[in-house]
Amino acid sequence: MFNIMRKMKVFSFGPSAVFALGVIIGVLTLAKPAMAQTPTSFNSGWFWQNPWPQPDNLHSVVTPNTQTIVAVGALGRFIMSTDGGATWTVQSLGNYDLLSISCSDANTCTAVGNDNSGTLGIILRTTDGGATWTVRSTGNHTGPISVSCTDVNTCTVAGSGNNILRTTDGGVTWNQQSVGPAISFLGISCTDFNTCTVVAGGSFSDGYILRTTDGGATWTTVYANLSSAFVTAISCADSNTCMAVQGYGILQTTDGGATWAFSFWPLSPSLGISCTDSNTCTAIGNGSIARTTDGGATWNEQSYGTTRDFDLVSMSCPDLSSCAAVGRQGGILQTTDGAATWFRLDRAVTRDGIQGVSCPDANTCTAVGPPGYVLRTGDGGATWNQQPVGTTLQLNGVSCTDANTCTVVGGDCCSGSAGPILHTTDGGATWTQQFSEATKGFNGVSCTDTNTCTAVGYGCGGATCSSVILWTTDGGATWTQALELSGGTPRRLMSVSCADSNTCTTVGDYPTGLIFRTTDGGTTWTEQSATGGARALWGVSCADASTCTAVGTSLIHTTDGGATWTQSSGVAFGVSCPNVNTCIAVQGIGTIPRGDILRSTDGGVTWTQQLGNLSSQLYGVSCTDDNNTCTVVGQFGAILHTNTGGEPTAPQ
Questions:
Q1: Of 47, 221, 420, 625, which residue has the fewest beta carbons closer than 10 angstroms?
Q2: Which fold has domain 356-642?
């Protein structure tokens, strides 16, 4: 079992050197569990709908029992399921890179890692199943990498810089133990109060294993293999039996570390390993799972395939039948029949970038981005389905006036490919191409009813870009050019919002933020000036004919039809304002791009961050008229949803 039962502990860290021998190969059966997808709750009013339960890299997993799965990873992610993976709670514990977690029971867990600046080691602890956390800095920039807890009071943390920390009072105090000769301790497994084994790497490719039998008062080097590979992961079933990972090999001891020998050589390097008892161990690596049920005498290796979103790095097995593994982009693999079959607990209708979304009501949304298909939900995002649209070009914008009628625009500004306008009147069952612009791509579209739509876009040749505004009043049967911006100065229209069939505002960039407005159904367009000289505007939403909010390198708003615009601090890609007071804006730029969701309840004067530090940049948002229901889309197939206006339903 896992360390909760004082029989094993597993943590993993990074791939190591390469070497291969022939092995027994099996075929892994990937099955789907018979369960419906349930939205995962964040510690906010937002829920992940895709990828599910969340998209960020997971570094470590622990299974205190067969129903409880706990994992941590990049960007402070903590995820927990108490029903075998049917539903998940997702938290952001802070601006940390969490590398390891150990739970002595389903409520008491300790997680370790570093802050994202790489300057401080972090230890976090919960005693109520993740509802609340205490945070402690180790004060050491060469921070903790792995942790193992044998009971609610006793935990040992191993890290870089020859540092080992130990608590015997539930984390109130931590005592430092300094040992050598290793440089970095990469994994630790403690089987009881006194006995722990750590694996490590030294200079060059030296691999070490160290062991204590007196609670860390003394540490003894029990294995040293110089110039081979770091020893990166370990799991001990009891005080005598351990399996460890070194490069392509799996090391084994059955005499408490007195002797070590290679038990198996997988085809790909193992990254995590878990031993349930002295006979049964399971190792996970890049594309394969290796398992022994006879103490390492024989191993069966199964290939699960490797994709860009599914490299697994950590494994935990609470009993002989059940195991869970986690890895890149939120990948989660599980078996409940002793590794005969495995199934993915994570889901993704797409992992391609989604550029825009339109939700005409609380249940129905259409999202666009990848070439060839749109995404659609009719049940509030409980399920999303792909609908083919018959184009190989990227889709950039969508506007739906009801559950059946949507217009989609796309294309590339600068490749010379035709920019398409697509239309459906049957909820996406069929799509018709209505228009194709030979030299420009379309970025935005806004429809006020089933007949009236405005589309904007631009095309560039060399240093010159020209923009175009198209207008239809007959449901797209004909599209008329309402305005073209051309000349020596690049001018690029990015987004448009129409408050009614006569009044529209479009925004763009170069050389400064562009704003154009019509009040006569597109017959004439007047250029407006943004206060503060915004360099670029990428999104706009108008709640009525007088009130609009535009976002880009600045956040600006008007309450007098654009006669004056007032600037607020902030940066965003997209915005949706269901009424004159309430707006949701999304962003994803910076030195290290991260996604954020902002909310204003005073018409864009002030903004509050509701959710931040997402690994996916966010591009588009759509809120329905009820003021509380919004859907956000972005990079890596990100779809988030709220039915509370983004506000948490209970204090966090």
A1: 625
A2: Methylamine Dehydrogenase; Chain H (2.130.10)
